Amino acid sequence: MTDPRYLKRTIVKDVITSRLLPEGSRDLRVYLPPGYNELLSYPVVYCQDGEQFFNFGRIATIANQLILDEGIEPFIIVGVDVDIKLRTAEYAPNGERHHGYVTFFGDELIPYIESKYAARPDADARILAGDSLGGSVSFHIALTYPELFHQVISLSGAFYPASREIAKSTSDLSKLELFMIVGLQETAFKSDSGVFDFVAINREMKAILESKGATTHYSEHDGDHVWGFWQQRIPDALRTFLHPEA
Fold it and tell me: Where are the transmembrane segments (predicted)?
């Protein structure tokens, strides 16, 4: 991606104040597409691990390429930063900060973005994206706010037992659509919670989701639990939910 057009990106550093997060605020980075016009409205991709999605996933550069060369409808990206030391506490469903973070996302972040930017206020125009536990928390946000979110991008989702049990206990997931990938070399990943076979847990989660009526776009590829693998799959993930302009 050496084309200079891809590298000419508009990324706004923003900060949202919060009553629900203990620190009282959260850093954001917001990508605005080429030709951004406040009189229009745009789909929005909401990324967990915001700094990593921009720096290691190169999602803004990928977005420019899709918009400029493939005619994908222009879209906004909101990266929500996370303190790595607090990541498991916020992203894991049994983490002590999980409820507050999920509630912040639905009750504070979405209204803030949709009041400040030309974001389309429609569930079909909101996409949640995350890697590993970021994929897991994206799923839990969509479960908590089904009126806000129907679409989830999960890159090697960390669907540990608690997440799978929550999915099993949910009666109807027919409105949910997920893009799911996992690397075939992710069979013994060492996490904060132990060593996990990500191929096995993603296969099981796919089966659970489909048994509850969810639509999955699932695939397995050569790759490990690293951004170098996930970055390669971000274009396909975005193409799944974002389409060429009519």
Answer: none
pLDDT tens-digit series, residues 55-89 = 999 999 999 999 999 999 999 999 999 999 999 99
Tokens 């057009």 belong to residue: 5
With CA atoms as reference, report the closest residue to 105 among 130, 71, 138: 138
Distances, alpha carbon 201 to alpha carbons 67, 115, 229, in Å: 34, 38, 18
| Beta pairing partners, 177 | 151, 215
CATH number for 4-241 (one of 3.90.380.10, 3.40.50.1220, 3.40.50.1820, 3.90.180.10): it is 3.40.50.1820
Rounded Cα gap, residues 126 and 174, in angstroms: 17
pLDDT tens digit sequence for 134-183: 999 999 999 999 999 999 999 999 999 999 999 999 999 999 999 999 99
